[in-house]
Amino acid sequence: MSKILIVEDDANINRALCIRLRAAGYEVISAEDGYLGLSVALQRRPDLMLLDISMPAGGGLSIVERLREHPDAPEIPFVVLTASKREEYRQEAATLGAGGYFEKPYRSEELVAEIQRVLALAASPAVNPAA
């Protein structure tokens, strides 16, 4: 069972994502801000992170940047969720290697399908020689 870390500051969205992803068969852990998300990612080493970009205490993309600076951190694939329509966020996420990018509101079926696709790619030996 793949482990997904959700980092989302909106409690209702966080809860809904947890319920939907557990129903899809994933182990789910969550954090309410970027600082806690970084700590959880380092401790629990999820298979995928679902990250909100704009949060009061550290945005989702800063988690990716900080993980890459950490010597013991694994390369964790990630999918972005955001309420922002700013193109520069989309470009920054792509530059950092986001597996997917969703604007809120999102369709949960499409999000789950994208998570499945990103996890399958990450598990592929051609993409991840350590797998």
Automatic annotation (TrEMBL):
Entries under PANTHER family matching the protein: RESPONSE REGULATORY DOMAIN-CONTAINING PROTEIN, STRESS RESPONSE REGULATOR PROTEIN 1
Pfam families reported in the protein's UniProt record: Response_reg
Name of this chain's protein: Phosphate regulon transcriptional regulatory protein PhoB
Keyword list, A-Z: Phosphoprotein
InterPro entries for this protein: Bact_response_regulator, CheY-like_superfamily, Sig_transdc_resp-reg_receiver
Start and end residues of each Response regulatory domain: 3-119
Tagged with keyword Phosphoprotein: yes
Organism: Engelhardtia mirabilis
4-aspartylphosphate modification, residue list: 52
Gene3D superfamilies per UniProt: 3.40.50.2300
Domain of life of the native organism: Bacteria
Any single GO BP term: phosphorelay signal transduction system
